[in-house]
Amino acid sequence: MKRVLGWDELASEMAAAEAPLGSVLTLGVFDGLHRGHVRLLAAAERLARAAGLQRVHIGFTPHPDLLMRGATPLQLLDAGELELRMAGAGVDLWCDLPFTPETRDTPWEDFLERLVGVTAAKSIVLSPESAFGQGRQGTLPNVRAWGAAHGLQVHPVAEATAGGAPIRSTRIREAIIGGDLTGAARLLARPYALVGTLQGDQVRLQRSEAAVPPPGEYRARVGVAGRPEGRLPLVGRLTTVRVNADGLTITLVRPDAADRRFEGGPIRVALLGGSLQA
Question: pLDDT tens-digit profile of 154-163?
Fold first, then answer.
């Protein structure tokens, strides 16, 4: 998978394709890459492989919430692991478009027309809650009508649910912050993981913007951090860790000699269900 930034780089990559047959698009900030996102990616991957088309994902940077709400949400997935998982889901090209006031205020029809023109898109995969463009009017019904008039196939994917409610990144954050790691894992389809730098028996989290569960001891798997050039699945040894009250460090309660290979480098702590808080 290749990742690029902005319209110019996207156009350059599409023009350089050896067999410019067109693409299948997905669109959005797949924050945390939860079960709903995975369902969309799987549907797009099947369509692309069946038709011999390129898989293109369009994201935005910074997170649209920074402009729309004044702050970015707590992160649910390390950036390196996100790229690894996107590649594993069949994405060939990932382009982040700058989310600026101009982007926010662009009519959805203009945005979609430009996007389809640059990527030679034949299909786009959307969920029922998808919405983009000015006033978030680029909804599934509107895009389907536009696609019918412009030769773009629109493939809806049913919304993923759990416990009778839609799966949302906000819901996952609430579960993590509340210490419900089993619930978060059910929505993510994997244990929630944090990445940091190992110093002695302390893991210093790489980013203070990550969602962190309440202080206390947790079962965990500690192992290598995901990187785009790596591979899935990500695993580690089963142990116990303590999430500290500062929200920035995790202590390995029973450090192992094997952990020393991570000293000074990135280490992944997958927090398993069930808090052992004192």
Answer: 999 999 999 9
